[in-house]
Design brief:
The complex is a heterodimer of chains A (280) and B (186).
Chain A (H helix, E strand, L loop, with lengths): L1 E4 H17 L3 H13 L3 H20 L9 E9 L2 E4 L3 H15 L23 E7 L4 E8 L1 H4 L3 E5 L4 H16 L7 E9 L1 H11 L11 H14 L15 E11 L4 E8 L6 E4 L1
Parallel strand pairs in A: 1-3, 2-4, 7-8
Antiparallel strand pairs in A: 2-5, 5-10, 6-9, 7-9
Helix pairs in contact in A: 1-4, 2-3, 6-8
Chain B lengths: L3 E5 L4 H6 L5 E10 L2 H13 L11 E3 L27 H6 L4 E4 L5 H10 L2 E4 L5 H5 L2 E8 L8 E15 L6 H9 L4
Parallel strand pairs in B: 1-2, 2-3, 3-4, 4-5
Antiparallel strand pairs in B: 2-7, 5-7, 6-7
Classes of the chains: A alpha/beta (280), B alpha/beta (186).
Chain lengths: 280, 186
């Protein structure tokens, strides 16, 4: 068994919370820059120039790109030969989130109860997805997720007969209805298969893929490109103020499913497409 | 694109009527922050016929829940939140004299009607540009509901705060008008 000290995990998560909220992944910044060059709408161009300037200020001053520093979403791969020394893994991850949001001056956006809505004051609990894998490493992927884009996300169990075309229409329609609300240009995570909850989890996971990277299966890679083309024909544009660039990328993740089902989840990510990863 | 229009708060009918969809505007003066929970509380007061903690006549409400200020800063990142969640409350506030709101995303028909009826305007600021927008905010004072944390009502003094007119008092809607120009899909 390999032992990892509790405090090392806390510190890693604390740092990930602060860094992910202030520094956009470089390929995302480059994609926004390319969007600025390609956008034809003058209002859209103005919006993109403000977004780029904002991302530069956030990086230089280490301040949040967006005031909505999200609910913390963690995908954690735990090696079977890893043991946490001095506490539990879940507590260490939670403590890291707590310290990151308090010490990093990040906004606390979590309420303790969905209906009574009293703020927990430290942005915990986080949403943590664990996966047990072979080996002695601990891999943490951290993605703060804002409310504006999450609110425009939809899961549906379509009929298997609706197939590929039905899914494409559903994704395009979801983006069309969302309009400017999820802060376009967006990234679209599509989870296909699994069951009700699995489709949503893999849609979220799809958002962690690097911008510009295609699905390894050419069938789905082509489908990603088709959805992207169709979404960019909607005219929604940056912040919904009209234009050619509504989405920067589409990522599909799939999972086997029941013979009767075809679950599809569309998770929308705003242009502040924040995520970092670390291996301990 | 046209140059910026510079306006000062509080807003008059004359200033509002001069604003047109697509105008790029720089606002100087006071803005009040309020989002979901603060609107809910304001509405409870209105329903009970009690006075509001702020005089909204001629004012602008900014839908924002800022991030905390780092030492030496007046405020943390402070970009707009999505406006439709406040649609239910907005017409009544315009009836009571509110002249403008700042947020992001489209408004419903009830808000667009109220803008015409009460001569008011809806601006959008760039969502997710919180670090940039914070630079235009020069001071922050707590006003009400501090227990709501990021959702409390604050009075901000802003200088040349950049916004775009999304819905004007003449019935214009930037989202519908601009989308048509670039839409290829049916």
């Amino acid at each position: 068994m390999r032992e990892i000290p509790f405090e090392d995990i806390v510190e890693a998560v604390r740092e990930m919370a602060i860094v992910s909220n202030s520094i956009l992944p470089p390929e995302m910044y480059d994609a926004l820059k390319k969007a600025y060059e390609e956008e034809e709408s003058p209002v859209g161009k103005e919006v993109l120039s403000q977004i780029l300037r904002n991302d530069e200020i956030a990086r230089e001053e280490m301040m949040p790109i967006c005031q909505d520093t999200g609910i913390a979403v963690l995908f954690v791969e735990v090696g079977e030969e890893v043991r946490v020394k001095g506490g539990s893994l879940k507590e260490a991850l939670t403590e890291g989130v707590r310290r990151g949001y308090i010490e990093g001056y990040l906004r606390k956006s979590v309420v303790k109860d969905p209906l009574r809505r009293v703020n927990t004051g430290d942005n915990t609990p986080a949403i943590i997805h664990f996966d047990i894998v072979p080996g002695d490493r601990l891999k943490i992927r951290f993605a703060p997720k804002g409310g504006g884009s999450e609110n425009m996300s939809v899961a549906r169990l379509v009929a298997p007969a609706d197939g590929r075309e039905g899914i494409i229409d559903f994704v395009v329609d979801t983006v069309d209805k969302a309009g400017g609300n999820p802060c376009p240009p967006i990234v679209i995570g599509v989870g296909i298969g699994g069951n009700f909850e699995m489709s949503a989890i893999i849609a979220k996971k799809a958002l962690l893929r690097k911008i510009g990277e295609r699905h390894p299966d050419p069938y789905y890679a082509e489908m990603e490109e088709e959805i992207l083309r169709r979404v960019n024909e909607l005219g929604i544009g940056p912040m919904g103020l009209g234009g050619r660039i509504t989405a920067l990328d589409v990522h599909i993740e799939t999972y086997p499913c029941h013979i009767a089902s075809l679950p599809v989840a569309v998770n929308i990510q705003c242009h502040a497409n924040r995520h970092v990863e670390k291996e301990l | 694109m046209s140059d910026y229009k510079r306006i000062k708060t509080p807003l008059t009918d004359e200033v509002v009527l001069d604003l047109r969809v697509g105008d790029r505007v720089l606002i100087t003066g006071y803005l009040y922050t309020a989002r979901d929970s603060a609107h809910k509380r304001l509405f409870e007061l209105i329903e009970k016929g009690e006075p509001l903690p702020i005089d909204i006549k001629g004012q602008i409400i900014y839908y924002v829940g800022p991030a905390p200020a780092k030492p030496g800063h007046v405020i943390g990142s402070a970009g707009p939140t999505t406006s439709y969640r406040m649609d239910k409350y907005t017409p009544k506030l315009h009836e009571l004299g509110l002249k403008g709101t700042i947020g992001k995303g489209q408004r419903g028909p009830e808000v667009r009607e109220a803008l015409k009826k009460y001569k008011a305007v809806y601006f959008v600021a760039v969502g997710g540009a919180g670090a940039l927008l914070a630079r235009s905010i020069k001071s922050v004072e707590p006003v009400a509901y501090e227990d709501l944390g990021p959702e409390s009502i604050k009075r901000l003094y802003v200088e040349e705060f950049p916004v775009i007119v999304a819905n004007d008092a003449h019935g214009g809607d930037i989202f519908e008008e601009e989308k048509k120009k670039y839409r290829i899909a049916k």
